[in-house]
Design goal:
- Helices cover 71% and strands 0% of the residues.
- By secondary structure, it is mainly α.
- Helix 2 packs across helix 4.
Length: 72
């Protein structure tokens, strides 16, 4: 899963953009915690030191990339 996300992030960053506050592994872990524990974006964000909106965007990005990949 991490390799899939790294490839997608590399493709996204090739066009330019801002650096992520969390590394890919933490984004994946944050998404898995969200899906497993049904925590709110606010509480997930607090655990990782980011805002609620950043948590939402990060989780949504990971979900979208993994759903679109052929292995899933």
């Amino acid at each position: 899963m991490v390799d899939i996300l790294r490839q997608a992030d590399g493709h996204k960053k090739s066009k330019g953009g801002r650096k992520n506050k969390l590394i890919i592994e933490d984004q994946l872990l944050m998404t898995r915690e969200y899906l497993r524990e049904y925590r709110t974006y606010f509480h997930v964000g607090q655990s990782y030191g980011i805002s609620e909106g950043s948590a939402y965007k990060g989780i949504k990005w990971v979900e979208d990339i993994l759903i679109k990949h052929r292995d899933f």
